[in-house]
Fold this protein.
Amino acid sequence: MSRLFGTDGVRGVANEELTTELALKLGRAAGAVLGRGRRERVLIGRDTRASGEMLEAALAAGLCASGVDVVRIGVIPTPGVAYLARYLGAGAGAAVTASHNPAPENGIKFFGPDGNKLPDGVEDEIESHIQDPANLPQPVGAGVGRIQERRDLLHHYGQEVRHTLPARLDGMKLVVDCGNGATSVIAGDVLTDLGAEVVMMNDRPTGLNINEGCGAMHPEQVAEKVKEVGADAGVAFDGDGDRAILADDAGRVVDGDRIMAICALHWSGTFHLPGNRVVGTVMSNLGLELALQSAGIEFLRAPVGDRYVSEEMRRVGASLGGEKSGHIIFAQHSTTGDGLISLMQVLGIMRATRRPLSELSDQVQEFPQILVNVRVSRKEGWSQIPAISTAIKRAEDALADRGRVFVRPSGTEALLRIMAEGPDQAEIERLVGDIREVVERELGKA
């Protein structure tokens, strides 16, 4: 049986791969597994994609058909769904979103009652019921689930975000790029209420313009705007608001590695950083690891994917972890990455230290790093192709102990991601180019 769930839920082109029929089946199966025969509530939130309303309706219908009550929140950042599921004691939360992917795509991901993403075993159980629905519950009468609208819950989430910042922002000027996504409905209000002067960008979602040349995938836009308007900092969110990339007062991009460094170095030796350890991924820059090590902070690497970072954090008792892409988990505040909370933590440190973001960001001297996404016809079995293995080994031997080479398939798209880092930009560009050429020859372009 092919696995329906990827590293971040179920994804696909809406109404083509991720159809209403599949969403309905997913709701019925998830309701049976997550409800466990009890009258549980499942919260559903979504981002701003045009297909979100359609898939939300189908998912809700499936959940109700299994005897589960549904609370529809409306448009809300994905971490808000995770927070509210835990806050309200719900049986689960579901987010209809494809995160940073383009508008035609969509997805569905679930959070358990603890606010964490579902373990693989639970996802496998849901998928088995989709493949064999014979034993799914089919209640009638009073046993059928009901749907409730709770648009007010967005405000509760906003209040929680605000409370993670121990200071006001009076006198600060910020640029905010919402990527025409879920943060459009909340980011400006939260920051304005805290006293900041806010310059908004890409906060007019049409359903079709989410992530379109803006947001966390294109942070150069917000960086340029920060310089243009003389702001203290800027932030670019992805479509569902679970990641953030910052821009400093010098108009430079501040990625997830630098955000983690800023927080870890400031919190070293305090209760904010228990055990003085941070969890990154295999893609985290070597410069981050060295900067933390020099301050006596242990740096651990997990596989790529926020769920794996979260699992490793729980295993070692870390409160800070994340990815270079801007998906940062502050375990003392949230169970998953939250772009707004990431922004609050950095702004709080700027306030506490009275240092500009450019100075805080310069605490890390990153190694040159190249990351290339190669679209392929298939991802299966790529590591068993001799020509690709040889190309990777050749690059690793060339760098030896001066850097790293890492190749992995995307968890959500038909891509191979090729990364190399080392002291010489031209050298790693050449090495990545050599691997890319072999991948394209062996696997072809999709």
